Automatic annotation (TrEMBL):
Organism: Streptomyces broussonetiae
Pfam annotation, one family: HATPase_c_2
SUPFAM superfamilies: ATPase domain of HSP90 chaperone/DNA topoisomerase II/histidine kinase
GO molecular function, one term: ATP binding
InterPro entries documented for this protein: Anti-sigma-factor_SerPK (IPR050267), HATPase_C_sf (IPR036890), HATPase_dom (IPR003594)
The protein's name in its UniProt record: ATP-binding protein
Alphabetically ordered keywords of this record: ATP-binding, Kinase, Nucleotide-binding, Serine/threonine-protein kinase, Transferase
Residues annotated as domain Histidine kinase/HSP90-like ATPase: 19-142
Keyword field contains Nucleotide-binding: yes
Length: 200
């Protein structure tokens, strides 16, 4: 008779942001706060680099790229979702945006100023891929290996609070809910065909 399987501990936290350039530093701050809370400070630098690249791509695909957007320019569809979750061995960094188009890996020459984002993600992550939830859009996710499991915060610990500038918070509405549902659907997806390394 097989011994009963021990349930895996799962910690997760998510945040919706307006798809504007300031979402990138806000997502890095979100990573720092969450990983310190989970006693995973050793992984902050790698996770910050990964989420910076994924959020930058999401803003380019669906947001406002003006470095100083006006508040009135931000509409309900300018929303991205970011999520962190851990299992005993991995940290998953996930970013939802409303575009169905997958990010494309480039092979820039030495003189190019950009285009190395997904190469960096591929270097830092065990694997990464794209998941298309039923609610629409896509979740680009990357798995980082952990040398130790995350630790849940004490029961009396205050809830995770990340204060972001007002113009970076998305307008409330349908698209914000879609981002939330897209990330939850990715979190619940356990089909093995999704967890394969991306093709070169």
């Amino acid at each position: 008779m097989n011994a009963p399987r021990q349930p895996q501990q799962l910690l997760t936290t998510s945040l919706r942001l307006a798809a504007v350039p300031t979402a990138v530093p806000c997502s890095r701050m979100f990573v720092r706060v969450a990983l310190k809370r989970w006693m995973l400070a050793d992984y902050i630098e790698a996770a910050e680099l990964v989420i910076s690249e994924l959020v930058t791509n999401a803003v380019k695909m669906t947001g406002i790229t003006d470095p100083e957007p006006k508040t009135w320019q931000i509409e309900a569809h300018h929303v991205i979702g970011v999520q962190l979750r851990t299992t005993s061995a991995s940290l998953f960094v996930e970013v939802w945006d409303r575009s169905n188009a997958a990010p494309v890996s480039k092979k820039p020459n030495n003189d190019a100023e950009g285009g190395r984002g997904l190469m960096l993600v591929s270097t830092l992550a065990k694997q990464w891929d794209v998941y298309r939830p039923g609610v629409g859009g896509k979740v680009v996710w990357a798995e980082l290996e952990l040398g130790k499991p995350a630790e849940p915060p004490p029961v009396h610990h205050p809830p995770l609070t990340v204060r972001v500038p007002g113009a970076t918070m998305p307008p409330r509405g349908h698209m914000e809910k879609t981002a939330h549902l897209g990330l939850i659907e990715r979190m619940l997806d356990v089909s093995p065909q999704q967890d394969v390394p991306p093709e070169e």
